[in-house]
From TrEMBL:
Localisation per UniProt entry: Cell membrane
Organism expressing this protein natively: Solea senegalensis (Senegalese sole)
Lineage, broadest ranks: Eukaryota, Metazoa, Chordata, Craniata, Vertebrata
Signal peptide residue numbers: 1-18
Protein name (record): Extracellular calcium-sensing receptor-like
InterPro entries: ANF_lig-bd_rcpt, GPCR_3_9-Cys_dom, GPCR_3_C, GPCR_3_Ca_sens_rcpt-rel, GPCR_3_CS
């Protein structure tokens, strides 16, 4: 049978007995006459009792061993009792601390004026079953005569306890039925923060939620990525391990193995765990267990002579004095862990000195303490078989398990818990009628205070003790604060618990942990931080590649791909270099990429820029010539206004090519295509209108065709050009508004080079823009081709036909060349097409006219133009 199954069986047995006793008790009470006495079928005597106006309970693990009764089912079993020879002096000190706190409160002239606190302190024996029995006895009373449960509700207002989380879970579920609040001094399980399940639970010790966060930060801080995990077979160990695994999900730390120390420990189970520890490469082992669970395990651990393990202890055993002996140092020296906050209780040492068998002759717990400390009995008997002693021996430093008051931790939590109840009760008694927190603004009655009324004030209590603030949050938790403890060699060869840092949960995230690393002594008496990893670190320039089927902490190192780097050790992945950078040969840093675009400084850019400016200059010269000779027949005969507009548009065509040269920018990308499209449509529109005018003039020269000229007057010509150009302007506007061209860094051509180009944004928009220009050009070409054989006197169609043939040939060749050209060469092709087509139009349309105007002025006469004469 497993330890968990045995524990469940024991729990079930005691629960059945408890229910049976309660049922028999209820039946006997109901059947008895009103005058008959209440019969208590079983009893569990407290360790210490003091009467008072208000009674609180205390539950402490004064013993740490159970005497299991025979559970053969043939007769009613006796109750489970604690083994009287295994008293824990440390827990006994906690119980005395509660007594001291109550005594101080009762002597305080300010706190609880005219009222006193009483207490009932029980021994839980460190197990949930006996803790359950203790709290039920606490509720019933210690004898038949004073058993309040026979007639009315319990007079118990609150409980201080318990030590272990498993005990607190059981007790809280019992006490919440009576709405009695409980303040734990050492139960850290995060599960107890659930207000729906444990509405009356409070604690003055930080929750394991904070402890596991501290553990996770500690592992990350020392780069321990491969660790083992041991836990006790109880709620504390289960929830702490679960919380730690949850926290480690967001770190690089992996758990190599997770083992459970059985509740009922056996040597065989311990050796199996040690075999796992010995075979694992994890050299750091975390332990979530209590002192009683670790004691038998560590005894067997030392017999196996296992060394080199760096222990990381939870606060449940990190300051266990039972492990401070010199025999433990070779195996546990260097242990590091988190302990609850240290405090100071000024009168504690003197108070502990007053406890001896002569002062308490009838208290068995005091007698057992003496037997544990001195190995003698103040009241010898045949049962104890110990030598006699006076019972007045002096408590010395050697009795540190009981007398150690230099740095109380759990002891201080007990002290704070009692004062929290006292301050809450004090605030309750100060309530003024009509201003209370309860129904109709009422207050609690001082002679009949209900536990749930005290809980209301406990939830809101806030006071200072020894300079420390004590308060509870909505979950009943207190302020998270831990000391970091390191086990070092003491002056006498024993283990000394040295504080080497702290964890302050009130600090900002990432700033909670403060460690004095130079003061830490590690396992094996080493000053170097132990290494606990599954795989060696990956150097910069490589990344971790997790091995299939293994945790992420076990990996291979793979060099980064081209264009990616890792500049840190143990990088999980290689990061891509920024857009303008490329990886170095070592793949550990990024270097700037070479950039490429059609620049003004390279030969190709210089050549295209020169041609563009030269073409613009020629347009200006031709325009000047035409303006100067605007009254001559050849200029007037070829529609001077359209010629001026055409020269102006050609000048824009030459200039717009400059927008394609230089580093692409948002405004140049947007303007280049709009300027190109509108300039060329304006140019081709002028040519189209000139062609239409030629046809109209020829038709008007025929009989009956005079009316055709009225449709091609100056106004109609301007309007036609404006309308045709406006259509292109509208196309550009829609294109820019819907999918505007923007600069684009193209890295597809060369991985280590950036090619700057303008992305067209919308391919459809670009195609429509070119298509519209092509439509007008083809239409002009067809009309000019039809009019090419008209009389020379009126005919410019041959020149238009030739110019449009050049224009169309250039742009038809442009499309495949543009698509197949990479990077800056695509811009060069487009610029070349613009310059070539513009130059073709300029030369074809205006070259012959300028030749006549400048070189053959004798032909620039009306007679020649009208009569085809040659002089």
């Amino acid at each position: 049978m497993t330890s968990l199954a045995l524990f469940c069986l024991l729990y079930f047995a005691v629960s059945v007995l408890t229910l049976t006793d309660s049922l028999l008790y209820s039946i006997s009470t109901a059947a008895a006459p009103a005058a008959s006495k209440c019969t208590l079928l079983n009893s569990f005597q407290p360790g210490f009792v003091v009467q008072g106006d208000y009674v609180i309970g205390g539950i402490f693990p004064i013993h740490f061993n159970l005497k299991i009764p025979d559970l053969n089912g043939t007769y009613r079993p006796p109750p489970i009792n604690c083994n009287g020879h295994r008293i824990d002096p440390k827990a006994f000190r906690w119980a005395q601390t509660m007594r001291l706190a109550v005594e101080e409160i009762n002597q305080n002239p300010v706190l609880l004026q005219n009222h006193t606190l009483g207490y009932k302190i029980f021994d839980s024996c460190g197990y949930p079953l006996t803790a359950q029995r203790a709290v039920l006895s606490m509720l019933n009373g210690v004898s038949e005569e004073n058993s309040s449960m026979c007639t009315n509700a319990s007079s118990l207002l609150a409980v201080i306890g318990a030590f272990g989380s498993s005990q607190s879970i059981v007790l809280s579920r019992i006490l919440q039925t009576f709405r009695i609040p409980m303040i734990s001094y050492a139960s850290t399980c995060a599960c107890l923060s659930d207000r729906q399940k444990y509405p009356t639970f409070f604690r003055v010790v930080p929750s394991d939620d904070y402890q596991v966060k501290a553990f996770a930060q500690l592992l990350v801080h020392f780069n321990w990525t491969w660790v083992g995990l041991l836990r006790g077979d109880n709620d504390y160990g289960h929830f702490a391990a679960k919380g730690l695994l949850r926290e480690l999900q967001y770190t690089k730390v992996c758990v190599a193995y997770q083992e459970i120390i059985p509740l009922l420990y056996t040597r065989q189970a311990g050796l199996r765990i040690m075999k796992v520890m010995r075979s694992s490469t994890a050299k750091v082992v975390l332990v979530f267990a209590v002192e009683g669970e670790m004691t038998p395990f560590l005894r067997d651990y030392m017999t196996q002579n296992i060394t080199g393990i760096q222990w990381v202890a939870s606060n449940a055993w990190v300051k266990a004095s039972v492990f401070s002996g010199r025999e433990y140092y070779p195996y546990l020296g260097g242990t590091i862990g988190f302990s609850i906050r240290n405090g100071h209780i000024s009168r504690l040492g003197d108070f502990l000195q007053t406890v001896n068998p002569k002062t308490y002759p009838d208290n068995e717990l005091v007698h057992e303490l003496w037997e544990s400390l001195y190995g003698c009995s103040p009241f010898p008997s045949s049962v104890t078989q110990m030598p006699p002693c006076s019972g007045q021996e002096s408590l010395l430093e050697q009795h540190s398990a009981y007398m150690n008051t230099s740095s109380p931790r759990v002891t201080y939590n007990v002290y704070k818990g009692v004062y929290a109840i006292a301050h809450s009760l004090h605030n309750l008694l100060l309530c003024q009628p009509g201003r209370g927190p309860f129904q109709n603004n009422s207050c609690a009655k001082s002679n009949n205070i209900q536990p749930w009324q005290l809980q209301h004030y406990l939830q809101e209590v806030n006071f200072h003790i020894a300079g420390e603030e004590v308060a509870f949050d909505a979950k009943g938790d207190s302020v998270p604060y831990f000391d970091i403890i390191n086990w070092q060699r003491g002056t006498k060869g024993n283990i000394a618990f040295v504080s080497v840092g702290l964890f302050d949960g009130t600090k900002a995230i990432g700033e909670e942990l403060l460690i004095q690393e130079d003061r830490i002594m590690w396992a094996g008496h080493q000053s170097e931080v132990p290494v606990s990893v599954c795989s060696a670190s990956c150097l910069p320039g490589s990344r971790k590649a997790v091995r299939r089927g293994e945790p992420i902490c076990c990996f291979d190192c793979v060099p980064c791909d081209s264009g990616k780097i890792s500049n840190q050790t143990d990088s999980m992945e290689c990061i891509s270099c920024p857009e303008d950078f490329w990886s170095s040969p070592q793949r550990d840093h990024c270097v700037p990429k070479k950039t490429e675009f059609l620049s003004y400084h390279e030969p190709l850019g210089i050549c295209l820029t020169t041609i563009s400016l030269l073409g613009t200059f020629i347009c200006v010269i031709v325009l000047g010539i035409f303006i100067h000779h605007r009254s001559t027949p050849i200029v007037r005969a070829n529609n001077s206004e359209l010629s001026f507009q055409l020269l102006l548009s050609l000048k824009f065509c030459f200039l717009c090519s400059l927008l394609f040269i230089g580093r692409p920018r948002p405004w140049t990308c947007q303007l280049r295509h709009a300027a190109f499209g509108i300039s060329f449509v304006l140019c081709v529109s002028c040519i189209l209108v000139k062609t239409m005018v030629v046809l109209a003039v020829f038709r008007a020269s025929k009989p009956g065709g005079e009316s055709s000229l009225k449709w091609f007057g100056a106004v109609q010509q301007r309007g036609t050009v404006l309308v045709l150009t406006s259509v292109q302007a509208a196309i550009c506007t829609v294109w820019l508004a819907s999918a505007s061209p923007m600069p684009h860094k193209n890295t597809q051509y060369h991985s280590d080079k950036i090619v700057y180009e303008c992305a067209v944004g919308s391919t459809v928009g670009f195609a429509v823009l070119l298509g519209y220009i092509g439509l007008l050009a083809v239409l002009s070409f067809l009309l000019a081709f039809l009019a090419r054989n008209l009389p020379d006197s009126f005919n410019e169609a041959k020149l238009i036909t030739f110019s449009m043939l050049i224009f169309c040939a250039v742009w038809v060749a442009f499309i495949p060349a543009y698509i197949s050209s990479p990077g800056k060469y695509a811009d060069a092709v487009e610029v070349f097409a613009i310059l070539a087509s513009s130059s073709g139009l300029l030369v074809a349309l205006f070259g012959p006219k300028c030749y006549i105007i400048i070189l053959r002025p004798e032909r620039n006469t009306k007679k020649v133009i009208m009569g085809r004469g040659t002089d």
